[in-house]
What we know:
The chain is α+β, with helices and mostly antiparallel strands. The protein has helices spanning 3-9, 21-28, 61-78, 110-127, 148-152; strands at 10-15, 35-42, 46-47, 50-59, 85-90, 92-95, 99-107, 130-136, 142-147, 158-162.
Amino acid sequence: xxxxxxxxxxxxxxxxxxxxxxxxxxxxxxxxxxxxxxxxxxxxxxxxxxxxxxxxxxxxxxxxxxxxxxxxxxxxxxxxxxxxxxxxxxxxxxxxxxxxxxxxxxxxxxxxxxxxxxxxxxxxxxxxxxxxxxxxxxxxxxxxxxxxxxxxxxxxxxxxxxxx
Length: 164
C-alpha cells in the first residue's frame, strides 16, 4: 500500500484540540464495512479515594503521531479486513468527563473491529510516548502515572509516583 493510501485510511492526531467521537466515527464509516468499534478513555473523578480535578498529558507530537501511525499499520496487517482507523489523543489538560483518547476502527464484521480497537489501546499504552499527570482537588497534590506497559512493552496495571 502506498503512503497516500495509508494516510487516507488513518486519522491520527495528538493535540490539545481533538476531534469528537462522532467525527472519528464518521471518518471510519464506510459503505463496505458493517461494523465500527470504538473506545473512548474518559477522565474519571476519583482515584484511590481522592477527588480528581483533571488529567494533564505531555508528549512529543511528531514522535507520538509516528508511533500511532506504526500501530495503525500493524493493526491493518494483524486484522486485514480493517477499513479505516481513527487514533487520537489529547495533550494538555483533560477535565473530568472528557475524552483523553479515542480509537475507532471499521471492518466488514464486528470481531476484527473490536479486536483491532483492543489491540490499539493496549499497544498505545505500551509504546506511544505520552505521559499522564493526575491532579487532585484542593491540596491533594498530583502524581505522574507511569504505565507498566511502557516499561515492559506489554499491557499491565498502572503504577503511580507521588509528586514532590
